[in-house]
Batch of 2 targets.
Target 1
Amino acid sequence: MSEILRLEAVSRNFSGLKALSGVTLGIDKGEVLGLIGPNGAGKTTLVNTICGVTPANSGRVIFAGNDITAIKPYRAARLGLARTFQIVQPFAEFTALDNVAAAALFSQPGVSVRSAREEARAHLAFVGLDAQAAQPAGTLTLAMRKRLELAKALAMKPKLLFLDEVNAGLNSAEVERATKLIHQLAADGITIVMIEHLMKVVLNVCTRIVVLHNGQLIADGAPREVIQNPAVVEAYLGQQYAKRSAGHG
Amino acid sequence: MKRTDWALLLLIGVIAALPLFGGAYALRLGTIACMYAILALSWNVVGGWAGYPSFATAAFFGFGAYATGVLLGKGLPLALAIAATLVASLLLAGLFGAMLLRLRGHYFAIASLSLVEALRELVNNATDLTGGGMGLNIPLAAGSGILADAAFFFYAMWGLLLATALTMIAVSMSKLGFGLACIRQNETAADMVGLNSTLYKSIAFGLSACFVSAAGGLYAAWVHYIDPSDVFDILYSVKPIVMALMGGLGSGLGVVCGALLYLALEEVVWRNYIQIHSGVLGVLIVMLLLFLPHGLISLRWRMFWRKAAHV
């Protein structure tokens, strides 16, 4: 499989705090990579650094053969790097349809407002929000707004999709529904990096897991191996989880 | 086009009939009404659509007045001088916008305010070109009797208002208008969907400046004499904001109604309370904003019906 994204010793500081230090990572086309780790480990910072929101202080980010280390966020978006936000970021006054239309309109060259809206309808239908198309985004429930984020990201025709805790704050039925959507996207061949705390979802969906702790990668491998890794158990999962999953495994 | 856009064009059409109903005073008032409407419509692009509270209107009004004044002094015909002013202002403001619009909120407001001061000082000190604090005399352009002159400048200002309104309607329906609405609601999200927000904001700033400058140019030619404290008056920055808030932020029809209402209040109050007119005007504006926070455009006939039904 060919590599779509490569990080070479990427570091990022926030005035003295090392949020990322020397992260080296390759992601292959078609992978569903789980990015896990305790709160404050640098997971979201890693996504922000790749997308150009908080560019790396040192190291290189290479996407599909291009160096994008110092890229502006809007250019990253046009290259095919799409993301959903952990804290949802809708255009609150716009209808759900226009939210998705905005993504279709500005991420691709030469799209008219009218055709963007038509395109948006299909993406809304895919995430099951067609009934809410005319509703202002600010009035949707959290679960709906999370799915709206997903529809926005899909409207950008992503090559690489970052899902930042799409399941946080959802009930189990909603999680199941979201998981099904992610499975579908993976089947369509979109490379996905998902930040997720629900291990059930991670093990269910991901083909590979990397673990971030204090800004450093401490594990990288197949899901079943990584959750047995003593360093990961120590830093994130905890002894009880390891025992339980060993019992089941 | 939306219904409010048609209503806006209709309203502007009605203004054109003003000379039929009065003499020089009506023409003077009409010219100022058109000028205020241009200022308010222009401010609405940056302040209403993109959500950046700009205080730079006076800077571009003054720039336009002086650019046109100097060009007329060099013997250029009025139409050409105004056109040159408009283009120069579009480019200049686009450039300023690219720098200033990196700031957000209050910081941007103060930076845009400093633009007025900076340009005023430049004009004050470029004595050879602008006459400095002594002001600038502008040769009579039309010069065929007072009333004909007044009518000429009324229609010139009205034509500029129509051009402004048509441009704004076109922008509101375009990708640019859509993008500015995205920036107002959530600039981070706008960046993330691939919108070049710096470019869009710069274009918006340019558009909000060029018609203001052209109006400043017409004003200069109309009054024949300008000086820095007159055309760089900070009130030219504040008035359009008040008009837009009174009329309804973001709506073309709303801000033009706001401009007309403001002018009407200004005239009536000034005539009746000459000693304390600013105070009375201020109180009236505060009352309007308190009781109608979304502006005139939020008025509905239903509001009156409902009350009637209870009685």
Target 2
Amino acid sequence: MYICLMYSNELIKGTLKTIVLSLLAKHGRMYGYEITQHVKEATDGKIQLTEGALYPLLHRLEAEGMLLTEKVNIGKRVRKYYSLTDAGNETSGVLAKEFKDFSETMNQLLNNFLLNPSYHG
Amino acid sequence: MAELNEQQIDLISAYIRQHGVASDSLHEDLLDHVCTSIENLMDEGLSFEDAFAKTIKLFGPGGLKQVQQQTFELITEMNVTMKKLAFVLGLTSAILLLAGTVFKLLHWPGAGIMVVLGGGILSLGYLPMLLWHKLKESEKGDAPMHITGFVGLAGSALGVTFKIMHWPGAGMFLIGGMAFLGIIYIPIYFFRKYKTSSNKPVTLSAGLVAMTCLIMVFALININNSAQMDRALLLPENHLYVKAQGIRDTDFAKDGEFWKAASETVTLLDEFAVEMIMRSEEVSSAEASRMSILDLRRRNDHRTPHFFLFNEGGRMSELVEVLKRVNAASEGLVTEGMFAYEVDESYVLYGESLDWASYHFKNVPLTSVLSQFAQIKLDLLRASDMVAHQESIQPAASGPPSGS
């Protein structure tokens, strides 16, 4: 369901919430299509969110009180902008910090393996 | 920048709805998303049709419907504890109900507690959790349907439990529950299905079959005895009762302990019969004394005799007392076993030890109580013949046998 050219689904699945919340923390309000395009451009197409992953997540985060929506009429259709609530803002910080920490730990771990092949036993 | 016209937007909107996205807020999101994507692709030189096709392709094999499905799943996801709890509750109630029913059929002890626990957990634990989950995952408009479905199912389950336990109120729960299911839930459920169904005749027939099944269950509960069976059982009882109505306490108007006790027994039995018919049928005593068993409308009424004979101030003890006196007085005068109301014996019913009165009269329908009363009266009449016979030959028998 996540069309992504570089990474496995398992890897993306755990970080999707972090990606969306951080993006909204940085850009204020965004609409769905904008989010997918932004992620695609910012990662040189390495990560491409699909609608099937994005919208369920947005709706869930809204239900959890992390996102606010704002409707704007665009011609004949409605565009829904998503932005962070205070709770969402807080969570985005926590998640981003956690992920940075995690990725540093992973780096450290993998470097250890690479530098000391004897670790493999 | 390309901009879609109204017709094109309507087309896309209809397409999204057709492909199973029923939630309005998701529909808005997807419509804007698809339109923006098409507009951008058109800027790159694609035609509307090609851009539309390419955009839809991005949704993957599950398509739009899957987006909605996943949205619901994410929003309504039960947490792990709740899932486990629901699973345990469902499994426990199913096992308890099954085991309880089997035990009940085999008359093993412990059936009652299992059925009660199982029915209780099902209707007060599992079903409410199911309702909560259903309410969360479905559209607001569906709430009344799910609530009536819950009330119907829980009512029926409680009704069945009460019915198995012979508790009062079973009929009310069952009829209420089934009515909710049959009159409200199933019609609404199938009407909604029918509206969105692609194969309408099949949906319609399935709805009709569901209704028919429910009506059959309903009918089976209400007609628990067929009319013929009722008649076959009642005719001999009625025959006995009518025959015994002719026996009066005056038939025993002679001197002696046996005659006195027998006359008192008949008086008591007649009084009890009239009192119980009066209460059960709500008629005057004159009318009650003229009624036979076939005239009764509430033939299966077991509450009136139970209250009259066994509740506080119940009159069963008076009958037991007078029968003891008859027994004592007839000793030696009546062939053994011909008239023996062994009121001191205990009896075993389904593994439970009961005294004479409870065994014969507790939780027994009025018709059966009346026919047992009739039987006692007839037995007394027969015993009185023997006593009269014995008394007439008594002087001869007491003298020494003439030698031959």
